[in-house]
Amino acid sequence: MLPEENGTEEMNMFELKLSDFLLSDTVRALHASINEEWDSLQLSACQTAAGRALWKHIIHDPVADILAGEKYLRNLHEKIKKDKLSNAREISGVILAVRTLWFDSNIESALNSFNCGENQVVLLGAGMDARTYRLSCLKESNVFEVDFPKLLQMKATLLQAAAGFNNENQKLTLKAKSVTRVAADIRDDDWLEKLQKSGFIPGRKTVWVLEGILYYLSHIDAVQVLKTIAADCTLTHTVLLADFMNKSSTTLSHSTFHFYSDWPDHLLPTLGFSDVKVSQIGDPDAHFGLMHDPLNLFNRLRNLPRSIQTHPDDGTPCCRLYLVKASGFPQQTIP
Ligand SMILES: C[S@@+](CC[C@H](N)C(=O)[O-])C[C@H]1O[C@@H](n2cnc3c(N)ncnc32)[C@H](O)[C@@H]1O
């Protein structure tokens, strides 16, 4: 396989260069407290940021490395190096790179579909996502980041430190119109109320971004969150962007993953969404030039009907990640 088939041509596989700022006492101390105090759910935010930092030739995230921290960068770098040396068909992190780019491009097209006017973008389980510093398509958007209080507090501290760091080459500039961090647990009944108290306006065109979050919730909680968003759809044009695991994917870690849907295109209309479009990693709108090898895991899966749970060639579970876009519009009342 050619190196560029995995999109790794610009990635120096054998040396991990960490910035002086990342290695400074301040940032190291902050990440030491993260590693001591956070649970695995919250730490998944740093792992995600590490993926974006190490696929930086594809995802231009100015703060992903600072938000990820040294430990997760080193761990993932080791995995990528091993994959590279063994000529693996899938390089660690590629799924995250594709997923990130899919959300980026769908956020942009959803905002374009609103045809100007005031709009909002809500990142549920925002973690260490730095889209507000990455995406210029957010320049007219009020962005709300919802996550646990201690995660959002730490994110703000790290970003403040990064902004204060004297690096003229990499000035940290907010690209969104505004960003508001909303501390809430989306399993609780009051998260929407907290969002509204923070300035979210029901009835204003909204893109809801649920990236890497639904499968950490129980079935009941995930469906309730989706229903709450669907209720907002009755007021205005709304776009939901979310990734769903199928049932087999949750077997990768029974203790971590709970909610799944093999058929989000059937589920979402029952909750109040319309125009549901389901993509899989490797599909024409979800490969971004990173999935050329027809024999890689994702392309092999795409060629099998979605109802098949076990791969006929080797008996392995068909672990799929669905990238889903759905819309909601107010009901047209007939005069
Ligand atoms: C895998 S990370 C993904 C973060 C972010 N969406 C991204 O793509 O970078 C999952 C995030 O969901 C957050 N999360 C999980 N359960 C949550 C809950 N019940 N309420 C609020 N946030 C939650 C975690 O704290 C973590 O930041």
TrEMBL record:
NCBIfam families: mthyl_TIGR00027
GO BP, sorted A to Z: methylation
Stored InterPro entries: Ppm1/Ppm2/Tcmp (IPR007213), SAM-dependent_MTases_sf (IPR029063), SAM_mthyl_Trfase_ML2640-like (IPR011610)
Keyword annotations: Methyltransferase, Transferase
GO molecular function annotations of the record: methyltransferase activity
Protein name: S-adenosyl-L-methionine-dependent methyltransferase
Xref: SUPFAM superfamilies: S-adenosyl-L-methionine-dependent methyltransferases
Similarity annotation: Belongs to the UPF0677 family.
Pfam family, one: LCM
Domain of life the protein comes from: Eukaryota
